Amino acid sequence: MERSAHVDRFVIDNLPPADEWPELIFERPELQFPPHLNATATLLDRAVAEGHGERVAVIGKDVRWTYRELQRRVDGLARVLVEDMGVVPGNRVLDADEREARLRTMTGASKRDAMEEVATAIRRTFFYAGFADKHDGAVHSTKSRHVTLAMNEPFGEMGVLCPDEAPLAGFVSLVMPALATGNRVRLKEMQVGTAS
Asked: How far is CA 187 from CA 50, 120, 122, 161, 162, in A?
């Protein structure tokens, strides 16, 4: 694998072994790219620079953006992520607005309730992620004269029934503690009113 520009290498360092990857075949001429590619520069900035800025790039429900408008939006988002939030290449980013819209569609929740559920799920994910490195059986020093002993005692594989009410926050609340302590999780949607 070619060296990546990612500063945060979590995803790259945790890829499955290469022999478990799908076969990646890019034989068509339009799919021939160099080993290192800035997708925004190649697919968006180049289109604007070559005079295609007023061509339509994105069409969706109530959305019609030209390449120039898409470039303006991408540049603005990138500026906020990098300059204001400190995101570096390789970091993962959650689009909370998209999650909120999906929750409203799935559950019929109000915009306010859906936004609160997304915020709750994010807070809980960070909370439980903070435990992930504490369950390794090592002794961790603390700032005082005490020590903290972390024990790695996963159950193995756990079954989790995801609730219909507050599905995202419920999912995070049930799955993240299990994953943080080293367990594998099998998920099943809860079937209300069925006995089995």
From this structure: 49, 20, 19, 6, 7
